[in-house]
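Box 4.2: Ligand-aware structure prediction
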Amino acid sequence: MMKDGDNSMKDIVALCKRRGLIYPGSEIYGGLANTWDYGPYGVLLKNNVKQLWWKEIVMKRADIVGLDSGILMNPKVWEASGHLTEFTDPLIECKDCKKRFKGDDVKGDACPECSGSLGEAKKFNLMFATHIGPVADDKSITYLRPETAQGIFVNFKNVLDSTRVRLPFGIAQIGKAFRNEITPGNFTFRTLEFEQFELEYFVYPETADKFFADWADERLRWYVDLGLDSAKIHLKAHDKKDLAHYAKAVTDVEYKFPFGWSELEGIANRGDYDLVQHQKVSGESLEYTDDEGKKVMPYIIEPSGGVDRATLAFLVDAYREEEVKGEKRVVLALDPRLAPIRAAVLPLVKKEPVVTKAKEICDSLRNKFFVEYDESGTVGKRYRRQDEIGTPFCITVDFEGLESEPQTVTIRDRDTMEQKRIVIDQVGEWLAGKIN
Ligand code: GAP
């Protein structure tokens, strides 16, 4: 039976808590709204998302290098980037119930909550301010970065001077960003603290339109290749009037979440806005010298995605409820490359030599894969638990297999629930083939 959006999100949030994927932040103190912690399985899933992006964007390509810049930067960075004045949302407060709304969410003159009268829209800056040192005054103020991108721009000259990159080339990084969002929500979709994977791809200005279109196609393909339903993902161009202050054009990769089509990643043509601004404010030349000695200010094409949003989309897309022999089965049908645990090793019965052999197999796999040993409860219950965390394969050790020559185990496929026998010595290679 189809569930409406709210219900299926509730089921996913409940599964995440129950199975150690994602917990509410600071829960024993009553929580802190819109903060979430990744549990033992969630951190593995999120790390897989990050590693697959890093492999695709940095490792496999000769034209892109990596970076890991700081969260705190000289406040002049945010003056130059325009964030101090432009990174704002219109904030409207109801004069009666005092509830606050983001300007875009208010239609008409009345409060959407109590129909009371609304105050004037005020500009609200989304950056979290903090202070360095013991005195909290204007001189000690700095900001938690609202995007990782500026760390790349301020290191553009360093990377040019210390490596062999030539246009077109990219600098990529993964890291935390912070925004004091007026309307956070939808689980991990919009939060105050989140991780971004960002690529800044520097190109000759006359080639920018082509790279902009190519990167949008490329990024859409990445999500589909990792299993997102191609009917629930598309590219959507921004209207010119909705563009961020730095952008000439933006196309979003959008996914159809249970709460509606929403942005997973934005591909922007930032033109030469950032390098020109940093050159102006810092006084350092940020021009690129081509092979003929000509100076060029590169344009920047930026595919910028949210690690938490991508992780949420993979979770939502993989979530299935099925009926098997009259019982409900919940499955996370994640691509094996994303699955937190690659395989579980289960003794069919808690008896020797089955238990010892199962532990031995699990230990031999542990060097290469995240695997799990589980001997508690019926084998049916153990399968269901692994289904719920998305483990693609359960390796079961039984008497029959240990008595055969050569010795075998059964491997159960999460999605088809079919089992097949495989020689124990071949399990590692077989699993590697499935995961890579
Ligand atoms: N450097 C460009 C930039 O930051 P953005 O569209 O504001 O562009 C990029 O953010 C991505 O970061 C978004 O597509 C989204 O995936 C993620 N993101 C932005 N704000 C977020 C939030 N409050 N919570 C979770 N993810 C967020």
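In the box above, the bound molecule is glycyl-adenosine-5'-phosphate. The pocket of glycyl-adenosine-5'-phosphate is lined by residues 147, 149, 179, 181, 190-191, 194, 196, 198, 263-266, 302, 304-306, 308-309 (CB under 6 Å).
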